[in-house]
Amino acid sequence: MKRKHPVALTIVAVSVLLGGCGGGGGGSPTGAPVTGGTFTMNLGTDPGTINPYKTTGGTNRQIFAFSYDTLVGRMPDGSVAPQLATEWKVAPDEVTYTLRKGVTCEDGTPLTASAVAADFDYVKDPKTLSAWVNLTIPVPYTVTADDAAGTVTVKTKTPFGFLLEGAGSLPIVCPAGLKDPGSIEHASNGTGPYKVTDYVPGDHYTLEARPGYAWGPKGAGNAAAGSPKTVKIAFVQNESTSANQLLSGQVNAAQITGPDRARLDATPTLKKFDVPVMVGEMNLNEAKGRVFADPEVRLAMAAALDREQVTKVGTSGNGQVADNMMVEKPVSCPGDETTGTLPAFDPAAANQRLDAAGYAKGADGVRAKDGKKLTVNLIYQVGAPQTVSAVELIGQQLMAVGIGTNLKGLTQAAFLEALYTTQDFDAYYSGINLEFPFMMTAYWGGATPDKGGRNTGSIRNEEFDTLSAKALAASGSEGCELWKQAHQALLKRVDVLPISVGNRPFYTAKASLQTVGLFAVPTSLRLYQ
């Protein structure tokens, strides 16, 4: 087993997405609200672009959520709330949104229905294809606008059970940003509560509150008592450093996932806001010539891994073994999807399967077939020490059955490049976190990155595709049963191996916030003396 990784940085799983549901709250500090202050939030490494239509990365999303609104918001209980749209009419294959009056872009331009419709056309245009098209409306659609009435209508070719929520979750970019995408790589041009005013690569973003903003979820604004005038998002690569800064009052918020949680939990002046997440999954590359293109190797890999032990290590004892591919609270379709579907931990069975498939052990203990060694290039994001420990344990357990590993830790930007640009990996250890089950069709089916998609593993599972197509048109309990069957179609073939779930908490000092899904809600930030 080989291991290569740079100095530990602070980034947890890819959390590819997105707004989500769920929520957290640890109460408010007892001091008086601070007026016009600066709220400093530590995140991990600089994620690269914050152009909403070029990325679906978790850290990217947390940053651009400050500057870009959506047509509807989602509350902690999973209900839909008015945001840029104040009302809507929904049919199985059509939704019409009525826009809020008085909404402006940060450059002062009024937001029109035509501007919103242009965004929907932009993300699906083959010349400017965005991953968001599959994460909002994963079926063919058309969009029309009526500026006089202030309405935008999205009509799909086939019925889509999550049309209101899906279309309503597209970040809305204002016309100037859409016309010149390069201008919003590290700046902003949206309708959101804060405007990016400064960017220092690898160090921080500075955002300033927009005067008069009052169109967040349910009319939320950015001028309540304690709302910050300035938000600084700092990139701090070491969790212990962030924990020290929280304890000393140098920063107001940070996400801590590793051993430093113990001392933060023991500090009564800090507040904690839990964010349920998928912590660890083995996501596989099944492209031709890759190790996991062989289904026998996938099944053997699953039998070789003790998910309970990897969970204990990968969550520092704070998580549970995953039993569902959806984690964000409230889970859209709850229930156990893994028991009886995934291979049980059984190294002897893994060895027998690999023997039968013609993989013979060499003198170094690594198997080979037709002169090619059975070695997995396993990548992961660095930052949390428990992630490194979990990946090393996976390497040890795979080696026990003759599967070699090259372990490589990457910063978030390099990690995303490996996934979506080079596809130079056999597997990656991370967690894909999504609000709705339909979003999985983009990650375990559909187009590959070279064709504008998010299917980094070149997964082609006909049963999953067929069941997903049926589930897209369904709703309620019927839809959930179909989604469960679709997910189990992936698990039976081990196209993905869910391992662990846990919390990725925000800690705050002299401050409070609320979370929806994976992210802190910008209009919820408060400062206290």
Keywords:
single chain, about 525 residues, alpha+beta, D-Maltodextrin-Binding Protein, domain 2, Dipeptide-binding Protein, domain 1, 3 domains, seven-stranded mixed β-sheet, globular, Peptide/nickel transport system substrate-binding protein, SBP_5_dom, SBP_5, signal, peptide transmembrane transporter activity
Give an overview in words.
The chain is built from 14 helices and 27 strands. The strands form seven sheets. A seven-stranded mixed beta sheet has the order 1-20-19-21-14-22-15. The chain has a seven-stranded mixed beta sheet with strand order 9-10-11-2-12-23-13, with helices on one face. The chain has a four-stranded antiparallel beta sheet with strand order 5-6-8-7. Helix 8 (295-304) packs antiparallel against helix 10, helix 9 (307-314) packs antiparallel against helix 11 (385-399) and helix 13 (462-473) packs antiparallel against helix 14 (476-492). With 529 residues, the protein is of the alpha+beta class. Helix content is 25%, strand content 23%. The radius of gyration is 23 Å and the shape is globular. Mean pLDDT is 91; it is low at 1-25. It has three domains: 38-67 and 192-274 and 504-527, D-Maltodextrin-Binding Protein, domain 2 (3-Layer(aba) Sandwich); 72-179, Dipeptide-binding Protein, Domain 1 (Dipeptide-binding Protein, domain 1), CATH 3.90.76.10; 277-503, Dipeptide-binding Protein, Domain 3 (Dipeptide-binding Protein, domain 3, Roll), CATH 3.10.105. Residues 1-19 form the signal peptide. Pfam families: SBP_bac_5 (PF00496). It comes from Nonomuraea fuscirosea. Keywords: Signal. Residues 80-449 form the Solute-binding protein family domain.
